[in-house]
Amino acid sequence: MSGPLDGIRVIDLTSVVMGPYASSVLADYGADVIKVEPPAGDVMRKSGPMRSADMGHFYLSLGRNKRSVVLDLKQDEGREVLLRLVRDADVLVYNIRPQAMARLGLGYEALQVLNPRLVYAGAYGFSQKGPYAARPAYDDLIQGMCGIPWLAQRAGADKPRYAPMVLVDRMAGLQLCTAITSALVYRDRTGRGQRVDVPMFEGMLSVVLGEHLAGEQFVPPVGPSGYQRSLARDRRPYRTRDGYICVLVYNDKHWRSFFAAIGQPQSFETDARFASQNQRLTHIDHVYGWLGEVLATRTTDEWLRVFEQADIPAARLYSIDDIVADEHVQATGFIQTVQHPTEGELRITAIPTEWSESVPENRRPAPVLGEHTREVLLEFGYADGDIAAMQARGVLGAHPSIPNKETT
């Protein structure tokens, strides 16, 4: 047994980031994820930097612990192969629009008859109950529609900008993963599979509005929208005399300790703007602006010593290189060096959870395109001759072996 989902078989029809990120978590936790790719492969295989064609850095992180099968689902014979896989699967996950799945003959109603225990999980842009149901969606679009660039500008950015990471795809991917595992628990209790829809827009709205609906949560409103602390213009890494520091002087205990550390113990009692959590929120621009002025008077190391003694949460501002070199990251082995069969030496992140039982493992590297087509089809009862004939007809792509590629 390797991971809590050992024995769960997932047919993964997803591409780009949201779906593959969800299925990568399932795969890390032990599920047998069979990634069904079109003949051209997942688009993220093409995203550099890379050493070999179709093995881009994004794909290498999203594809680990999965098996790659190439099927042309535009051909009837390719769809028949997929249906054979689905009969013995626990989960089918996809992230194209449901209308497209129905046109392929892969809608929920058809597959539920074929496998009543199947968890049929779809992830796409918008709830199918509203007028945006058929719209295409990507991370940047959903960030914009959820107000993230607008919030960034309201918080002090010179212009609206997206979060500098694929934020929505990964948040929605985690919601998709949670929904799938919850549906599996329900199935094990009742014997019944079900359809699960995870829309990006509504999923990300639950994150943003949970924080920023604020006064508009009440009917009638008791204040404006927007959580004051998150939107404070000086809520940022603070400049010190020689760099930057991240610090959260947050509760009453922290503020008392901070004023004592800088030799102004009376200020907590005499300045009403600091006297309570609600007063600090009301005057947040003053509070954070004043804090920034104070922090600029000493070096980062000096402040880190002060905050450690005062038991106030603080940390250095890291770059990506700093993260890789960090002593804690190195001590825990979170960033590991592995040997990939075709891509040579790679850095990968460890599975970011720790278990006393059913410990997940990195079982296999991200596969080359079609690496496991023959292996998987043999498991499902196809004969070698049938596999070769389908490959000759372009129904599937089967990589005969892992080539020895020189890195470039």
Describe the structure.
The protein is α/β, with parallel strands linked by helices and 408 residues long. The chain has 2 domains: 9-207 and 350-397, Crotonobetainyl-coa:carnitine coa-transferase, domain 1 (Rossmann fold), CATH 3.40.50; 238-316, formyl-coa transferase, domain 3 (2-Layer Sandwich), CATH 3.30.1540.10. It has 19 helices and 12 strands. The strands form 3 sheets. A 7-stranded mixed sheet has the order 6-5-4-1-2-3-12, sandwiched between helices. α2 (57-62) links the parallel β2 and β3. The longest helix is centred in the middle third of the chain and has 24 residues, at 167-190. The model is unreliable at 402-408 (pLDDT under 50).
Output the radius of gyration.
Answer: 26 Å
What is the helical fraction, as a range of percent? Answer: 40-55%
Strand order of the largest sheet: 6-5-4-1-2-3-12
CATH homologous superfamily label of the largest domain: Crotonobetainyl-coa:carnitine coa-transferase, domain 1
Number of helices: 19
N/C terminus separation = 37 Å
Q: Per CATH, which architecture of the largest domain?
A: 3-Layer(aba) Sandwich
Principal-axis shape equals: elongated
Which range does the strand content fall in?
Answer: 5-15%
Structural class: alpha/beta
Topology overview:
Layout: E1 9-12, H1 18-28, E2 32-37, H2 57-62, E3 66-71, H3 76-87, E4 91-94, H4 98-103, H5 108-114, E5 119-124, H6 139-145, H7 148-154, H8 167-190, E6 194-199, H9 200-212, H10 228-231, E7 238-239, E8 244-247, H11 252-261, H12 267-270, H13 277-282, H14 284-295, H15 300-310, E9 314-316, H16 320-325, H17 327-332, E10 335-340, E11 344-349, H18 373-379, H19 384-392, E12 396-397
Parallel strand pairs: 1-2, 1-4, 2-3, 4-5, 5-6
Antiparallel strand pairs: 3-12, 7-8, 8-9, 10-11
